[in-house]
Amino acid sequence: MKLQVLINNCVHRPGLKAEHGLSLWVEHGGKSFLFDTGSSGLVVDNAHTLDVPLPQAEAIILSHGHYDHTGGLRRVLEDIGRPIRVLAHPDIWRKRAYKDERGIRDIGIPFSERQLERAQFSYNSNPREIDTNIWISGAIPRETEFEQIEPELICLKGDTWVQDDIWDDQAMVINVPQGVVIITGCAHSGIINVIRYGLQIAQNRRLYAVIGGFHLWHASQKRLEQTIEALRNLEPAYIITGHCTGLEAACVLKSFFKEKCIFLDVGLEINL
Fold first, then answer.
1. What pTM did the predictor assign?
2. Which domain holds residue 200?
3. What is the pLDDT of residue 234?
4. For position 91, which CATH number holds?
5. What phi, psi does 114 have (nearest 5°)?
6. Read out DSSP for 10-52?
């Protein structure tokens, strides 16, 4: 399995561009997939620089309906130049926002479905095998007590803004000989919930690697400690993290997991 980072908050080497967002190129079993598209069209620029053949993608997988994972979709579709499957949960089109002391700002997909003519949307709420030993999770059960979605994330229900449960948050799950690789966009469901459900889907108890944003930038010290303890018990060979994990939390993970912990920077290529 090969993974290449096309978009993240930081770059790995000169000549590439970073932004607040995530996009990963995933190759396994002779098939290629684009997981998320970042905030803007920079994903295409970086793909060209890295010689990543976006038109060869079997499908585009959207982890959830926030702009920093979907904003590059239209330009990606233009670059691919043909109809392509876009795999997502049906809730990706919900009207979404972030509310704080500065007010309410839109953080949803910056397009309508009609504006994405080449996208052949295929929706799933439940786990779905998209190729041999490759799944997308659908909605992830929330079982841990310490992983909560922050109240600042809201969505429109009728005419009222309410807490957004982000049920469209989903992961990519891949069985490899060494165990299970789990790829997540933001892990709004809680990274431990994501991992446990991914292992259940793959029917494999061995976690080999967890990759993506862990959404710990706002986490309390107690939640971070509980997350680290749960990760220790899962015994992954690799923790490859970035984006919404947050710099402080990522550094704490690095201090505990040492060489097992790798930062997701644009241009990084990982062979697992």
1. 0.97
2. 2-271
3. 97
4. 3.60.15.10
5. -65, -25
6. SBSSTT----SS-EEEEEETTEEEEE---SSTHHHHHHHHTT-
